[in-house]
Design goal:
globular, 6 strands, binds 3-methylbut-3-enyl trihydrogen diphosphate, alpha/beta, 7 helices, binds magnesium ion, 6-stranded parallel sheet
């Protein structure tokens, strides 16, 4: 990364929260004559590279879409490889996170994950809870519609139990019941590999985010590419429905 990386962009123009739909592991593998698992492995390694780049750029929140509620539709072989890779990653990345000051979190429905993996997630979250250099969140078995559905169900239970009045349901209360309740909304959403869709990622939270699409496959997305996305973001005028 070049030395001017941080100084080139005024601090107030650096996004506080970057969310990434890391797409294209399979096409990357194909283009290099590798297997799909090799593509996923390269993609997982790149999360570490881009996390480091976020710390250098002064981006405090990074959220990555690792496995969607729809990804179970893939072959059993691919799903089981991806689950194994994520488990391995959650276990082995902890030492790196502790060294680099990275707080790890996972969003998504844990009830369908292997109990061993859930224990690993809870351990990672607990043991990195004091760290502040970067808030790194993995979306695993995450789907925005599923998240909103779970939130609505939880609120309905509270209303039924008399803890909440229907008139008390507002955006803040809904937000508080989402998996992302402790995270600020993303400022910048990046999707790699040329697809321009959300694929059920953070539908509520991205209401006013800036979108950035790149043709690059995720394993080839470099810190320089991140900087380019951030530079592009820094040049935009966000209005939030108001007038300048
Ligand atoms: C993204 O890469 C990783 C996951 C969705 C798990 P893909 O596996 O979707 O790669 P392509 O889209 O087939 O190239
Ligand atoms: C989105 O990628 C999900 C993740 C990156 C985990 P997909 O490759 O699954 O999305 P579609 O199927 O192309 O929309
Ligand atoms: Mg894909």
């Amino acid at each position: 990364m070049d030395e001017n990386m941080v100084t080139a962009i005024p601090a107030e123009r650096i996004p506080r929260h970057v969310a990434i739909i890391l797409d294209g592991n399979g096409r990357y593998a194909k283009s290099k004559g590798l297997t799909r698992p090799q593509g996923h492995k390269a993609g997982a390694d790149n999360v570490e590279t881009i996390s480091d780049a976020c710390i250098e750029l002064g981006i405090p929140y990074l959220t990555v879409y690792a496995f969607s509620t729809e990804n179970w539709k893939r072959s059993e072989e691919e799903v089981s490889y991806l689950m194994g890779l994520m488990r391995w990653y959650l276990k082995n990345y902890m030492a790196t996170a502790l060294r680099k000051g990275i707080r790890m979190r996972v969003i998504g429905d844990r009830s369908k994950l292997d109990p061993e993996m859930v224990r690993e997630i809870e351990k990672d979250e607990r043991e990195t809870a004091h760290l502040t250099n970067l808030n790194l969140t993995f979306a695993i078995n995450y789907g925005s519609r599923d998240e909103i559905t779970r939130a609505v169900r939880a609120i309905a239970e509270e209303v039924k139990e008399g803890k909440t009045l229907p008139s008390e349901i507002d955006e803040k209360l809904i937000n508080a019941h989402l998996d992302t309740s402790v995270l600020p909304d993303p400022d910048l959403l990046i999707r790699t590999s040329g697809e321009e869709r959300l694929s059920n990622f953070l539908l509520w939270q991205l209401a006013y985010s800036e979108f950035y699409f790149t043709e690059k496959y995720w394993p080839e997305f470099t810190p320089e590419d991140l900087k380019e996305a951030v530079l592009n973001y820094a040049s935009r005028e966000r209005r939030f429905g108001g007038r300048k």
